[in-house]
Amino acid sequence: MRFATDENFDNHLLQALIRRYSDLNIVRIQDTFLHGDEDDEVLQWCAQEERILLTHDVSTLIAFAYQRVGRSMPMPGVWEVSRTMAITDILNDLAVLIECGGQEDFQDRVIFIPLR
Questions:
Q1: Under DSSP, is residue 109 helix (H, G, I), strand (E, B) or coil?
Q2: Structural contact between residues 51 and 30, judged by C-beta atoms closer than 8 angstroms
Q3: What is the DSSP code (8-state) at residue 53?
Q4: Count of alpha carbons within 13 Å of 44, Cβ hemisphere only?
Q5: Which residues contact 14 (CB under 8 A, 6 or more apart)?
Q6: Of 6, 114, 113, 99, nearest in space to 51 by CA
Q7: CA–CA dist 8, 112 (Å, integer)
Q8: Does the pTM of the predicted model rise above 0.85?
Q9: Which of 43, 64, 87, 110 is most buried by its number of CB atoms within 10 A?
Q10: What is Dmax (Cα atoms) for the chain?
Q11: Average pLDDT, the chain
Q12: Which of 27-30's residues contact partners 24+ apart within 8 Å by CB, and which partners?
């Protein structure tokens, strides 16, 4: 699977995820030309690059993701990760998704972590 993290994603969590999955294909949005761009532009780029977006931004980004799906625009998936859980618990939930799913399983879906 291919991932991107938006600009507000916790760097400590990202580093822990990379330590757990050293071969993870992940890009930080702030390391791309998209740094500072609007959420809809980030989602467009993720769709073009076929990258699931990891975010903590439930207030605006999720609405843009649902709008893309509603308009039948490509949306490779968004995983909204809680900021209130311990990193270990978040990593365990992410592991379930990474190890048991495939890229196509998350197409047009918003997944909330913790998993419910």
A1: coil
A2: no
A3: E
A4: 7
A5: 5, 26, 28, 54
A6: 6
A7: 16
A8: yes
A9: 43
A10: 37
A11: 93
A12: 27/3, 27/51, 28/4, 29/4, 29/5
